[in-house]
Each structure stands twice: as structure tokens, then as C-alpha cells.
Design brief:
Elements lengths: L1 H24 L3 H27 L1 H4 L4 H35 L4 H5 L5 H23 L1 H10 L6 H30 L5 H22 L14 H8 L3 H4 L2 H9 L10 H33 L15 H5 L5 H16 L1 H4 L5 H12 L10 H23 L12 H5 L4 H30 L4 H28 L9 H4 L2 H27 L10 H26 L4
Length: about 550
């Protein structure tokens, strides 16, 4: 009995505390940057809320009603998105802690109850999520302090309520992780994440359509019941500021009545019940799925001399490129961290196209402005996707990088092979976005051809820049490939891609204002200069990547 209590103490209390202490003593640059961004975002939201809803309220009254009402509504959507992000991050952390836990086999060999093991996993997930939870709670706390002036006893209670909400989110993540382990027993973690992401996106789109965001831009704004309620209620803009909306979602038991017994008991009940449900359901379903995870699939048997799909697909290329293409195709099929995350492009494109339908597209004077902005925004989407998928192409070779370095294949041909293999899906995404967005905006044939040409050229250069800079700053030792996308090389690529996209938008807006009527000029001096400059920059980065890659030592 004493041994079991000691194991329970070490796993559930001491081990998470030691992990947190080690992270605080030896913080990585990525952790520091992430927390600085979170802190800046939290205080920025609090300051913007205080400034917008208190100091500039008189200025907002001079704006037409539709634009006044858009501010609290969008900020409330931001608070809802933060809550969804908190729950989703807890789900991802729980999946990482439960689904891919490397020490489960070791812990199963110990004489301990399964509930102790699951409670250890729950504590580890909660410790990882606690800092993010507290930082996300800062904006509503600032809002309450500036507007409502609650007593001091409210603030520790507020933090307790926030942590209780986090406990519920972590338990939700653990339960979903256990269910996915049971349903998808063959370690299909990333496919499960894609399914969760698609469900969340569908939920967000449904909520946005329910609030009728398209009515904000027209004269029928006040016909929206939610907006009419805000407009007629006394101090509606102040009372429903984003921090207070988020605070109401965090404090479901009491509002302005102070900290009472019901409030403390309810929040404590959330944490206790969520933990108990997690342990109970985990005992029922988790190890059934975990045993299935240990089952191996049958080996694939192929007749001698039969060509594979990759051999038939790349037969038109030179022999060396064909071999490299086949190797990358096999690696792509065996690595679900790459191809399953391509599913996330679908909701990304869907959300962007849905947001286009909310714009005032019926105003002819703004049509050309929207076309230019659309090309720039698609460039940003391509940049973000390229930083995640294309930049780590060289680093994905890992410790087997000595094979291409010692092979008779030149670095230039190796770079070209990576570009030919990796860029078509991203270019297809940009092409689909360009065509569908122009169709939604009812762009004329001249504007459609203009945006399609320059948008596709920009996408090609961004993709080549991503692969080339990935060859300049490779990293072959990492715990997860995502770490490569967060390094200094990826940061330099994003700055370069933002400069390219921003310069194009600036030139396009100059053309919009200098040519108020008629189609935008297809051939213009500034556009030609922009193409030549960034084409030269792309070629320079490709040459630099080839040179640096060739100088690598095994």
C-alpha cells in the first residue's frame, strides 16, 4: 500500500512539478518567444478594449450603425475563438501525451492501478496547458478591473475559475484522445487531428452563419436580432465588450454578486467531476485501444517485376530524378505527419472563401481594391503553408542526409527535385483559391486574368523561396519536424515572403488609385520591376541554398 501511494505521489505530483521546474530553469528560445507573444497579445487586447470602449466611445457614435455594431460583435467572436483555441490546444496536448506516450509500456510493467497512470497523464497535460490558460485569462481580468472595479477577493477566485475551466478542457481532450485511440487503433494520430480540426471549423462556420455576419455591411444591420439587442440596451457596447463577454463564459455561476459558496463549490465541482469522469472512462476504453495500437499490419507483397505507382508516375523524368521522386513518395506515404496535415488546407481555404462572401461586393468602386487585396491575402496563405510544409523539405532527410551528400547527385539537381516534388500541391491550392475567389467577387475577365497571372507568379516564387531557404538553414536533429518551421531560417523566410506580398499589394493599390476607371494595366513599369526584382531574389536564394547545401559536412 505504501509503495502504491509513493508511486502515485511521484507520478501525479512530483514528476509534473519537476518537468515544470526544468522548463523554467532551462527555457528554450522558442518557449520564451511563444510566451512573450502570448503576454503581448493578452495585454494588447486588454488595452485595446479599454481604449476602444471607454476613451473613444464618443468617436464611435459618429460612425454609421452597421460599423459601430461590428466592433463588439467581432471582439466577442475573438473571445469565443480564444476559448475554442484553448480547448483545441488541450485536446492536441492530450493526444500527444496519451496517444504517443513513449513510457506507457514501461509504466504498464509496474504494479500500479490504471487510474494512477491516467491521472499522471492528466496532470502532465494540465501542467503544459496552465501557462497558456492563465495568459488567456488576462484580457477579461483587465476589463473587469477597469470597468466593474470588483473587490480584491474576486481576482484569486477568477483565476481559480479559469483553472477549473482548463481542467474541464484538459479532461475533454483526454476523453477525445481515448475515444480516438479506440476508434483508430493503428496510431493514426494526425488523421484524428485533421478530423477534430474539420469538426471545429464546421462548428465555427455554423456559428458565424447563425449570427448573420453579412448583415453588418448593409442597411439591414439593425434587423439582426442580436445587433438590435445591443443597440437598444443601455450601455450595451460597454457591457458587452470582449473581456466581459469572455469573463461571463468563464464565470457561469455568479456575476456582480461577489464570490459566494455556490461559485466556489461549482468551480471545484467542474474540476473534480471532469477528472473522475476521465479516470472512469479511461479505465473502460483506453487500454482496449492501446492493445490494438500494438497490433501490426500485414506486410505488403508485390510480384517481382511489377511496377509501383511511383515508378509509373515519374517515368518521364530523368533516371536520377525518378529515383529521388520515388524515394520521397514512399517517405510521404509512410510519414502521416506530412500528408494528413494537408487536410487542414481544406478548412483554411473554406474559411477564407466564406469570409469573402461577407464583404460589400455589390459596391463597384471597391471591386478592384478587393481583387488586389485578395491576391495579397492568398500570398499570405501560401507563405504560411509553405513555411510549414516546404521549408523543412531538406531537414526532413534527418540523420540520413549523408546519403544524398555522398551520392553523385549534384546539390542543384537535388534542390530541383525537392521543388518539383513539393510545390505542386501548394500551387494547386493557390490556383483554386484564385479562381474561386474571383468567381465569388464577380471579377471581370480582365481583372480575373490580371489576378490569376500575378497571383500564380507570386505563389511560384514563394514556394521556391521556401525550399531554397530551407536548404540554406537545414536542421537534421530535431524531436519533431515542426521545430524546423519555428527556427531562424523559417523566420527569415516569412519576413521575405511578407516583404514580397506587401510590395505587390502596395504597387497594386497605387494602380487602383492612379487608374480609377477601367481595368488595371496588365503590363506596367512598377509591376515589371517587381517581377524582375523578386525573380532575381528567388534565383539568388536558390543558388545560395545550393552552395550552402554542397558545403555541408557529414
Amino acid at each position: 500500500m505504501i509503495a502504491k501511494l509513493r508511486v502515485f505521489y511521484l507520478l501525479s505530483l512530483r514528476l509534473p512539478w519537476m518537468q515544470t521546474r526544468n522548463r523554467m530553469r532551462n527555457p528554450s528560445a522558442d518557449d520564451i518567444l511563444k510566451h512573450l507573444i502570448l503576454i503581448s497579445f493578452a495585454f494588447g487586447v486588454g488595452w485595446a478594449e479599454y481604449a476602444l470602449f471607454l476613451r473613444f466611445f464618443e468617436l464611435l457614435e459618429r460612425i454609421p450603425s452597421g460599423f459601430i455594431l461590428v466592433l463588439p460583435k467581432l471582439f466577442s467572436l475573438l473571445g469565443s475563438f480564444l476559448f475554442a483555441f484553448l480547448s483545441y490546444s488541450s485536446i492536441l496536448t492530450a493526444l500527444s501525451a496519451v496517444y504517443r506516450s513513449e513510457d506507457v509500456d514501461y509504466l504498464l510493467a509496474k504494479p500500479m492501478p490504471k487510474s494512477v497512470l491516467l491521472f499522471y497523464k492528466w496532470c502532465d497535460t494540465a501542467v503544459r496547458s496552465s501557462i497558456t490558460v492563465i495568459l488567456l485569462a488576462i484580457p477579461p481580468m483587465i476589463s473587469l478591473g477597469r470597468i466593474v472595479h470588483p473587490p480584491f477577493s474576486f481576482y484569486p477566485g477568477y483565476l481559480f475559475s479559469t483553472l477549473s475551466l482548463a481542467a474541464g478542457a484538459v479532461s475533454l481532450g483526454m476523453l477525445i484522445a481515448m475515444g480516438l485511440i479506440t476508434v483508430f487503433p493503428e496510431k493514426r494520430m494526425h488523421r484524428s487531428l485533421a478530423i477534430i480540426g474539420l469538426c471545429l471549423v464546421a462548428l465555427m462556420i455554423t456559428g458565424m452563419r447563425f449570427l448573420h455576419l453579412e448583415t453588418l455591411w448593409g442597411e439591414e444591420a439593425l434587423a439582426n436580432p442580436f445587433l438590435a439587442y445591443l443597440a437598444t440596451e443601455e450601455d450595451g457596447y460597454l457591457r458587452y465588450s470582449p473581456g466581459m463577454l469572455f469573463a461571463k463564459s468563464v464565470l457561469p455561476f455568479v456575476w456582480d454578486s461577489g464570490v459566494g459558496t455556490l461559485w466556489w463549490g461549482g468551480n471545484a465541482l467542474i474540476g473534480v467531476v471532469s477528472i473522475l469522469c476521465t479516470l472512469y472512462i479511461g479505465n473502460k476504453i483506453f487500454f482496449k485501444g492501446w492493445c490494438k495500437c500494438r497490433e501490426h499490419s500485414d506486410a505488403e507483397i508485390r510480384n517481382q517485376g511489377e511496377q509501383t505507382y511511383s515508378e509509373r508516375s515519374f517515368h518521364f523524368l530523368p533516371e536520377t530524378l525518378t529515383t529521388l521522386m520515388q524515394k520521397d513518395w514512399i517517405v510521404l506515404k509512410r510519414d502521416p505527419s506530412v500528408w494528413t496535415q494537408l487536410f487542414m488546407m481544406i478548412p483554411l481555404a473554406g474559411i477564407y472563401l466564406l469570409n469573402l462572401t461577407f464583404l460589400p461586393l455589390q459596391i463597384d468602386e471597391l471591386s478592384r481594391f478587393f481583387v488586389v487585396a485578395n491576391v495579397g491575402l492568398i500570398g499570405l496563405i501560401v507563405s504560411a503553408v509553405s513555411a510549414r510544409f516546404l521549408f523543412p523539405t531538406a531537414s526532413r532527410e534527418g540523420k540520413s542526409i549523408w546519403i544524398p551528400l555522398k551520392s553523385p547527385i549534384s546539390p542543384w539537381r537535388f534542390l530541383c527535385q525537392k521543388i518539383l516534388f513539393s510545390t505542386p500541391p501548394i500551387l494547386l491550392l493557390s490556383l483554386i483559391l484564385l479562381i474561386l475567389s474571383c468567381h465569388i467577387m464577380n471579377a471581370s475577365s480582365a481583372l480575373f486574368q490580371w489576378s490569376l497571372f500575378y497571383g500564380f507568379c507570386m505563389s511560384i516564387m514563394i514556394c521556391v523561396l521556401a525550399v531554397s531557404l530551407g536548404f540554406c538553414f537545414p536542421a537534421f536533429e530535431y524531436r519533431h519536424i515542426v521545430e524546423v518551421s519555428l527556427g531562424k531560417g523559417a523566420f527569415l523566410f516569412m519576413i521575405t515572403a511578407l516583404a514580397q506580398t506587401g510590395s505587390f499589394v502596395y504597387i497594386g493599390l497605387r494602380l487602383v488609385f492612379t487608374h480609377p476607371e477601367g481595368p488595371l494595366p496588365f503590363v506596367q513599369s512598377w509591376l515589371i520591376i517587381w517581377l524582375l526584382v523578386w525573380f532575381g531574389m528567388t534565383c539568388f536564394c536558390a543558388g545560395l541554398g545550393t552552395y550552402r547545401f554542397g558545403k555541408l559536412e557529414v
